[in-house]
Amino acid sequence: MAPQARFRLEPATVRRLLGLAVLLLWEVLPRAGLIPALFLPPLTETLGALVHHAGEYAHHLLFSLYAIGIAMGVACGIGIGAGLLVGSVAPLRQSVQPVASGLYAVPLVILYPLFTAWFGIGPQSKIVFASLYGLLPCFLGTMAGVQTIDRHYITVARSLRASRLQLLTRVLLPAAIPTVLSAFRIGGALVIVGIVVAEMLTSTEGIGYLITRNRTLLNSPRVFAGILLVVALVIGFDALVRLLERRTRHWRFSTRSADAVA
Amino acid sequence: MTTLLQAPDRADRAAAPQTPAAGHVQVRGLGHTYDAAGRVTRALDGIELDIAPGRFVVIVGTSGCGKSSLLMMMTGLVSPSEGSITCGGMPMMAPDPDRVGVVFQEASLYPWLTAQQNVEFPLSLRKLPKAERAARARERLALVGLQGFEDRYPHELSGGMKQRVSIARGLVQDPPVLMLDEPFAALDEQTRITMGDELLRIWERTGKTVIFVTHSLTEAAYLADEIIVMSARPGRIVDRIEVDLPRPRTYAMMSTPRFAALRERIWGHIRNQAGE
Lengths: 262, 276
Prior knowledge:
The structure holds 2 protein chains of 2 kinds. Chain A has 11 helices and no strands. Chain A has helices at residues 11-31, 43-52, 54-88, 90-104, 112-119, 123-147, 151-159, 164-201, 207-216, 220-247, 255-261. Helix content of chain B is 33%, strand content 23%. In chain B, the strands form 2 sheets. A 6-stranded mixed beta sheet of chain B has the order 6-7-8-3-9-10, with helices on both faces. Chain B folds into 2 domains: 23-99 and 177-185 and 194-276, 3-Layer(aba) Sandwich (Rossmann fold); 106-174, no CATH class. The longest helix of chain B is centred in the C-terminal third of the chain and has 19 residues, at 257-275. By secondary structure, chain B is of the alpha/beta class. Chain B is globular and about 50 Å long. Classes of the chains: A mainly alpha, B alpha/beta. Chains A and B meet through helix 7, helix 8 and helix 11 of A and helix 2 of B. Chain A: InterPro entries: MetI-like, MetI-like_sf.
């Protein structure tokens, strides 16, 4: 075969090219007048706004990060902890799971006005809202994960006389880690969404607030600068989850599937 | 089972002294009936066993004859509906890794732990000092021929190696009795024979009482001092065969008339049940 026939685009290369194309179009389309700059300011202008008001963006970003950090801790801590407990006790799971799944379908954002009334328009109401928003997927995902744990792991622990606490922390928790991580991926992303949306609705601080305020001022470059920061935030979170997944890669090989590979 | 969180209570834990009788396993009048969704099944009936310390006993029978259930009862993991089991003179009411080490059919290692950590696991549950844990686990891994594989994860080990780690874990608390539930069933034939030799070597070196469940006639005849043949459900003991083949056992013995006669005798029992 001819050498050029072997030339193939790697998926990673395609991804990078696509990203580059989007950035390029972002710059070219408004500059060429194909899209009004009010709807889509050129990339360089957006970055310019970001650099020019770096101090302000940094302040609001930190504020959002603080709220996200606390809400993520609450959502994932309680969600994963409760998911482990409820998931491992069948009668409890059977009564709780349908209710929790049903609740998950409710758009919790309808409760946000209530939270602002209860907790004020400061960070508290946002943290409560985003915690609740991210908690359910963490809880549901972990609960489902516990049920898929190989029964042999539990039998072995019993044959070694593990206590209930040891069974929970030394066997069920590590065995559930792959599912817990995917629950964390969804729950954590929803926490970010929850905080930003809450800031956009009622707030005086945070990246979501900046986006809304600049939108009412029709300052498009600064709106898009805020959006860029939110995207960067999500990419950062995704990188964190990937790192955790890489560090727990041994978990994902069940002993039996490894036999098939070997 | 209704809950994953069922752990045995620790109240009846017995400190078993390592007296000469520690490896003595006795089963008296054991029977088991279970009720699955309204259908009552008699699984085991009138089981009597007396296994002297240091013996290699193989329980053989067709699938579904209750041989694995019987073993699980001897380990203390499952309670029989009637009868009693003692190990070293003390009843086996609950699992006790100080008296009985268990090796399961499936490679039951924890995939998030290395070979070394898997073997240390039982000791870490007992909160032994780290240095002692590590030393004992390393020594057990060496015993099963896995020196240099301490830091491998289960998915980086072959099927046979994984079962070696399981055996090392079963022996790490130095129990007088080792019980194995079809440990080599998932392995290919060559590995199976090698693992049988390995187990015999380990048994000879440690002097443990070994109770080994299998459905393989060859494995039974090759490994055992005594073969317990079980009937189809309800599982009863239909024969006890003293194996008079000399030790050490060799691969060549498998083609001798004595070996063939042994297999023939076991097969006779099993064939009769199949015809019923």
